[in-house]
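new request in #modeling-help
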Amino acid sequence: MMILAFLLPPLLVLAIDMTFYGGFKGIDSGVSFTRFANATLTAYTLCSLFLLGNLFFYGESRNRPWAPLVGMIMATALGVLATVFLIGQGPMLLEDNGSVRSQAIYNIIHMFVSSGAVLVAVSVALGVTFSAITSQKPRNDFELEEE
Amino acid sequence: MLIILGIYLISFSGNVPVGKLPRSDRKIGVLMAGIGFVWLAGMHWWVLTPQLVPNEVNPYWYVFWPTFILLTSCLASCSAVTLLMIGEQRKAEANTMFIVSGLSFTVLLLGLNVDGPLVTGDEFREHLWLAVADLAGIVVGSVLSILVFALVIYLYERSLPEPKSITPPTESELKQVSSLIAAHLGGEEE
């Protein structure tokens, strides 16, 4: 139910588009797939890097083992290599950029901007929920038993 | 920043047990959040659109604005249903969240149908679906990396030898422990 509520706005836009325009107006599946793939690869690589940093804290309680660190470095390197390889394959993942390096930098900046938008949206939604709760009259949730 | 600061002022000028702000801050908060949203709307439909060179919209504005407005609508809708399902007597708060979701969705529909001076409805529509693809990609990529992280930890922990078992306590050790426990049990009568 909650997932459905989350997905309701884009589904409504889709329904309105299909009703009034008789199809998926403005959706270019090729461009959308390119964006999806780039976002997936960038999110995987950046998130792996972040988690790699977390392994240092994990290692503190385990006498700093090398095995998980090497495993995570390899997983991160796999993400970087897959990104470079797939972008280098040609127009499949190359958006309006001329080279692998410019596309990779564009992906990273794009990810930061998207993450910023996500962060602001989450702050607004949580903040408004919190302010809606605190703006109500205080409630007595516990009834005191009187002898 | 104005919006978040405004929401902070609105939240903490309400009924909070600690860190309560004066009631007058509520009006300032509403004003700040309102100005923030109007400013964002002005960046789409007025002359405030961020530009790299005259008449060329900053491409990252096309990334930020649809993602923000779509996700706000989705999260507010989800929050409203969550309040109804999990919270008790939270109908008023859920209605507020439905209104926020509805307002964001209205802005979204306006963006799709009303052209701004530099951003047309069709451009906004195209970038809206790219934002959906972007959000889906971020979720899939993040989940994948978390799964890999969990797998690495799991494989390492599984490869560790089992800890050595120690011999059970002797009779004298058990006696010493029970005497220590007995010495620390009980207390003064109230």
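bot summary: Strands of chain B lie at 51-53, 56-57.
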